[in-house]
Structure formats: C-alpha cells, structure tokens
Amino acid sequence: SLSYFEWGTLAALWLFQQAKLDVVLLEVGLGGRLDAVNIIDADVALITSIGIDHTDWLGDTREAISLEKAGIARNHRPLVCGDLDPPDVCIEFIEQLGARLLLRGRDFDIKVKNNDWDWAGLQWQFDDLPLPSLSGAHQLDNAAAVLMVSQLLGLKGINESVISSALQEVTLSGRFERISGKFEVVLDVAHNADGSRRLAETLSKIPVRGETW
C-alpha cells in the first residue's frame, strides 16, 4: 500500500491540477530517484548541491548520492546543476540518459562584486544584481541556478527588474531566520554536515556583542 507521504503527494498533485496553475515548483526529498515526487516528468529539473545526507538510503559517498539525485533527470529535458564540483559518474549518467545537462561554470556562472553580482547564461546576462536578502553565501549559489531554470522555462514577464525585486524581497522561514527581541534568536533547520557548515560560516560573518550560545 502507499505510504502516508505518497498519499499526501498524490493529493497535492491532484489539487494542483484542479487549480490549473501556470507553474508548479516541486521539491524532491530523499535524494531524488526514490522520492514520490519523482513520478512527475518536470519540464526542468534542478540539483542545487551534492552533499552527504540520508546515508542509510542513498549511500555514504558523494558519488553514490549524486547518482540518486540524478534520478530526477529525464531524456531530452534539461537538468541544471548548481554544484561547482559534481562527481564524474553523475555527469556521465545524466549524459548517457540523454538529458540536457547545464553546469555551473560552463553553461552559466556568476561574478560576485562588493555589493552586487553579475550573472551570465545561455542568452540572458544581468549586471549589478542586488545580493539576495537571504543570509549566507550559498544563497547566491542557489539564486544563480534558479536564474538558469527561469531562462529555460521561458516564463513571460521575467526581466531584470522582476529578478532584482525578487532577490531583495525573498524570505524563507527557518533558514537563518533572525528574530529580534531582548536578545536575537537565529532559527535554522540545518540537519546535515553541509547545512551545519554553511550555518557556521554565516554565523562567523555576523559580528555580535556579548555571549553566544
């Protein structure tokens, strides 16, 4: 029988279909290949980064985990990879499958400056974009990959003004979410080695007075 999560996924997909949405953004968990959301053949797939996580199910090496993530790729459809160092076995698998692989550093890339950044892709190029409102250098990496996805989807109304506004207004609960009060509280759902390292890096760049615990 279907699991609780599988039933929930089917219910969500049915609701999306009834709403006749223009765009549906689906997050794939547990690597990718084994996840219930992977029953959908996405117009564009995205792998943001490749780290060690869910080792009981996915394996304990980046190579093994990358192949599980690559399971979301589809023949003749684009897959964007924002990781700057994807394992060779992952690249080979995606290319053998016949998916259109777009790599950070080859097909699109960014140039970070003092208070802004430039992005260049296949046809688009944007200069002097504002830094994302989300804390952490990794959020700039995520934004770079999302811009490549946006270009591939060819969505109407996406221009430099819209992108700049989105970067400045985006919020994400539970990801370095700062709550002010008698003392500042930072909420972050980092739950693996990569996430914890990025959290530590972000904390180290924000000076605070007094004791931190």
Description of the structure:
Helix content is 36%, strand content 15%. It has 213 residues and is α/β, with parallel strands linked by helices. The longest helix has 16 residues, at 4-19. The termini are far apart. 23% of the residues are buried. The model has no long low-confidence stretch (mean pLDDT 93).
Strand order of the largest sheet: 1-2-3
Largest sheet: 3 strands, parallel
Broad shape: globular
Number of helices: 7
Distance between the termini: 45 Å
The helical percent reads: 25-40%
Roughly what is the average pLDDT, rounded to an integer? 93
State Rg.
Answer: 19 Å
Number of strands: 8
| Alpha-beta content class | alpha/beta
In sequence order, what are the helices and strands, one letter per element? HEHHEHEEEEHHEEH
Spans of at least 5 consecutive residues with low confidence: none
Portion in strands:
15-25%
Which features would summarize this protein structure in a list?
three-stranded parallel β-sheet; three-stranded antiparallel β-sheet; 213 residues; alpha/beta
What's the helix and strand layout?
Elements: H1 4-19, E1 45-47, H2 55-58, H3 62-69, E2 78-81, H4 88-97, E3 100-103, E4 109-112, E5 116-120, E6 125-130, H5 138-153, H6 160-169, E7 177-179, E8 185-187, H7 193-204
Parallel strand pairs: 1-2, 2-3
Antiparallel strand pairs: 4-5, 5-6, 7-8
